[in-house]
Every structure is written in C-alpha cells, then in structure tokens.
Amino acid sequence: MRNPTGRQLRFGAELRKLRERAGLTATEAGQLMGIKQAQVSNMEAGRVGVSAERVRTLACHYDCSDEVLVEAIADMTGDRKRGWWEEYREVLSHPLLDLAELEHHARSLRDSTTARIPGLLQTREYALEIFRQAVTELSPPDIEHRLSFRIKRQAVLFREDDPTPYEAIIHEAALRMRVGGSTVARKQLRHLLDMSERDHVTLRAITFDAGAYPGSGQSIHYAQGPVPQLDTVYLDQAHGLAFLDAEAQLHTYRTLFDRIESVALAPAETRDLIHTVLREL
User: Fold this and answer.
1) Under CATH, which number does the domain 6-78 receive?
2) How far does CA 100 lie from the centroid of its chain?
3) What is the mean pLDDT, run by run of 10 residues, along the chain of 281 residues?
4) C-alpha of 14 from chain center
5) pTM over 0.90
6) Quick one: fold of 84-280?
7) CB neighbours of 104 closer than 8 A, spacing ≥ 6?
C-alpha cells in the first residue's frame, strides 16, 4: 500500500512502540517471527495489512502484558476499507482526510476554541465565510470542496445508532464575533443552542471575565481512542494540521483540557450566555 491512511500509519506506529518497549530491533523482531526485517518495517509503516492474530503474536514475542491495549490495536486491523472522505483525495490535503478518518473512529471528541466556532458545530453559512477569509485565497471550486467536506464531517454527531459523544469549550469571543454579519451569526448561535440540547453534546463557554487561562490563544482538538494510549491530539495551525500521539503529549493535553474546563461555565449557564449574545445582536 503506497499511501497508507492516517489510521494505518497510527496502527503501524503502535506496533513499533510495542517493539521498542521490548528493546528489540526490527531485525530481531523479524527473527522471532520468522520473517524478514523489511516485512517488519512495512508493517510498522502501515504499508501492509496485518491480521489481528499476528498482532497478538507480536505482542506475545514482545512480552506485552497489557491485554486491553493489545486487543485495541488488534481491533484496528478489522477495518481497512476507505471511507466517504476518499472521494476528496484528489482535491484536499491528506491531513484533512486523516482528520475525518480519526473523527469517524473516535470514541469521543473534545474541542477548545477561542476565536471560532468549532468546525463540527459550524453552519454552512458560517463555514463558507471562514473559507472566504482564508489567508491563501481559495478558488470557488476549492471553497465548495472544503465546505461540503466540513459538513460531511459533522455526520459523526448525527449517527442514529451511535452518535459520537462531543464536548466543546468555546470562548465568549467566538460567540460574539459576527462572522458573516448579524444574520449568519444569529443562525450560528441558534444552531449551537439546538446542538446543546442533544444528549451526547456538551457545550461550555469561557467568559471574558475568566481572564487568562491555560491553553488560551490556541485551538485544541482531542479524539479519544478505545484506550488512552490510542488517543490523538490534533492542532489546527497556520501551516496545517499537526497530529500528536506520544504518551507525554497526550498526558499534557488531557491535563490542559481539565484545567480549561475548570474555568468554563456549566452547560446551562452557557446556554444562558448564548441567549444573551443573541438578544444583543
């Protein structure tokens, strides 16, 4: 497989972590398995398919006793088919496709934003204005591709059988910013109120009165995996998306989210604030 997806790359990276924790080289791992070093490298690069049974065998050779982690990694082998995001492969960057794949498989999602409404909660009109204001000017076809892609990503919150639990912490600045003018802003705020009524969606706001707080000034997105070791942080930066999955990084951002949440309003108070902003538009 010449172009493994982000999920396949992550799967391979987890196999490599298991091997490295065991203190083995790829050559030594291959000798234990009776395969060539190149095959081990291809597995760890996500370029070849690996069965769940082979994952368990590798974990046994690596003396990994964390059965829950091993089974979570093994479960990642069961779905190598490409999702709806593949139709955008020729028109959008690969990190965006990896983001959609990550969100599709996440057990839960958390966002913290300062200047914008999170993408998963944006109305079509709000998102359109965001893309129109991109620093690198986008052509009308590019805008349409990005717009339809963003709206399709939101399907994880509307699945009838198993919608993804979602928490968004939004600064008051983003609530009051009139992106697209008053009409677009009103529709966006009403959409937030509607989404906040869903059982699996939790909205919290941080008011101006909260002052400075940990993590202010950056947008942080956290996708929970089946076990904490398979969580992922993704940061939306000027140069593109950055995905973080080292254990120390994950611990840092879990702690950061907890500290951000500690200064945010409760969901009911957040709805009251949104109603206030609506009345003032």
Assistant:
1) 1.10.260.40
2) 8
3) 83 95 93 91 90 93 94 84 88 94 96 95 97 88 96 96 96 96 97 97 96 83 96 83 93 94 96 97 91
4) 18
5) yes
6) Endonuclease; Chain A (3.30.870)
7) 83, 85, 156
